[in-house]
Amino acid sequence: MTYPDLTTLQWLTFAGAAFMIGLSKAGLKGLGMVLVVLMASAFPAKASTGLVLPMLITGDIMAVIYYRRDADWSYVWRLIPAAAVGVILGVWIGEGLDDETFGNILAVIVILGLLLLILQERRPPSQQFVRHPLVSGFTGLAGGFTTMVGNAAGPVMSVYLLATRLPKREFIGTAAWFFLIINWIKVPFHIWSWETIDWQSLQLNLVVIPAILIGFWIGIKVVALIPEKAFRYFVMIVTAITALKILFT
Description:
Number of helices: 12
């Protein structure tokens, strides 16, 4: 996929996704699901995951630099081993899927993620429950699988980390380190197995780095100003509508 191949709508979607990645990595959680479904609407579903991944890693690096002192590594190490297994499972399942089936699975994952977020809003799990090895293992596995198949592990990880009752900065820092590590684990599979990352797609990613930087800078400024509950509800509604569009188109 090269520059001349993109339509105006695809360019706008691509740049908008980059901007939203900057916002989400600065701490405005929930936008990740929106950009995933928007990209899957504008591009072939599987190809969109490879286009998004380098942008996510760029945002992860920014977040890790800014929140480098705020991560709780005990939660990161609980999740990473099972998440790596989940990534491999996602590679295996996604390998032979056609684009329509892949898009449908992506939409279902996003909708299930929304249901998890809604459930968390109504009845947050206890810290004792979250610390159980089986819970962290299952969360890591689900997070690894969903991030490989659709870069859509945000809801799973948000439910888990919100239940830990970590302060806001530690929440963001812990998530940033987890996603930086797991996203780098995904890169070889996207290059050599799915072939969704190549030099041409990386060139496209380089063009929108300024949009990620601007989004991250703005996100840092407004993360403490936006009413979080109202923002989460807005994101849930927009994401649900877009995911249903993918599922039934």
